[in-house]
């Protein structure tokens, strides 16, 4: 993982395959694995469940693209 840039509104980060998978797995677990009431989810995560699921979907889609590109270059997933 490499932090590229930090501003008042955005953090730009480069994630390697293992970093991206770790984030995806953590979000998937908290969104879908363990049961938290909506108020508890917001308290623990700092965002509501819908927002976390949007991030999960985006990182999942990016991982699919990354894996396809890695396979195209003969790299392991």
Can you describe this structure?
- With 77 residues, this protein is mainly α.
- The chain is 64% helix and 12% strand.
- It has one domain.
- Strands 1-2 form a two-stranded antiparallel sheet.
- Helix 1 packs antiparallel against helix 3 (49-72).
- The radius of gyration is 15 Å and the shape is globular.
- The mean pLDDT is 94.
Briefly, what is this?
The protein contains three helices and two strands. The protein is mainly alpha-helical. Strands 1-2 form a two-stranded antiparallel sheet.
Keywords:
77 residues, mainly alpha, two-stranded antiparallel sheet, 2 strands, 12% strand
Poorly predicted regions are none
How would you spell out the order of helices and strands? EEHHH
Beginning-to-end CA distance, first to last residue: 17 Å
Percent helix, as a range, is: 55-70%
SSE topology sketch:
Layout: E1 2-6, E2 11-14, H1 17-33, H2 38-45, H3 49-72
Antiparallel strand pairs: 1-2
């Amino acid at each position: 993982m490499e932090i590229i840039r930090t501003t008042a509104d955005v953090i730009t980060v480069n994630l390697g395959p293992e970093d991206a998978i770790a984030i995806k797995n953590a979000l998937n677990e908290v969104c879908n694995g363990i049961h938290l009431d909506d108020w508890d989810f917001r308290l623990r995560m700092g965002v509501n469940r819908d927002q976390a699921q949007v991030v999960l979907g985006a990182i999942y889609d990016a991982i699919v693209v990354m894996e396809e590109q890695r396979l195209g270059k003969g790299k392991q997933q």
